[in-house]
Design a protein that fits this description.
The longest helix is centred in the first third of the chain and has 15 residues, at 11-25. The chain has helices at residues 3-6, 11-25, 28-38, 58-71; strands spanning 43-44, 47-48, 51-52, 56-57. The chain is mainly alpha-helical. The protein starts with a helix and ends with a helix. It is extended. The protein has 2 domains: 1-39; 41-71, no CATH class. Helix 2 (11-25) runs antiparallel to helix 3. A two-stranded antiparallel sheet has the order 1-4. One of its GO terms (molecular function) is proton-transporting ATP synthase activity, rotational mechanism. Belongs to the eukaryotic ATPase epsilon family. One of its GO terms (cellular component) is mitochondrial inner membrane. Residues 59-72 have a biased composition (Low complexity).
């Protein structure tokens, strides 16, 4: 059994922690470049009848949904 499983982490979470640790250990200039590379912008699109709909930002759509839920 892998140590990350024994610690209760998923492999993706383990890799995120490891990457963040490596980025934080770099010198300032290299750290800034690596931090920008580590940011993500996830997008999604709904498919209907075999055709892809408009691609939307997951972060923006999530914020809009949370705002709509808060208004209820």
């Amino acid at each position: 059994m892998s140590f990350w499983k024994a610690a209760g982490l998923t492999y993706n979470r383990y890799m995120a922690v490891a990457a963040r640790t490596v980025r934080r250990s770099l010198k300032e200039e290299a750290r800034a470049v690596a931090e920008r590379r580590g940011q993500m912008d996830l997008k999604f699109a709904k498919w209907e009848n075999g055709k892809q709909g408009e691609a939307k930002s997951l972060a923006q759509d999530n914020q809009a949904a949370m705002a709509a839920q808060a208004e209820k």
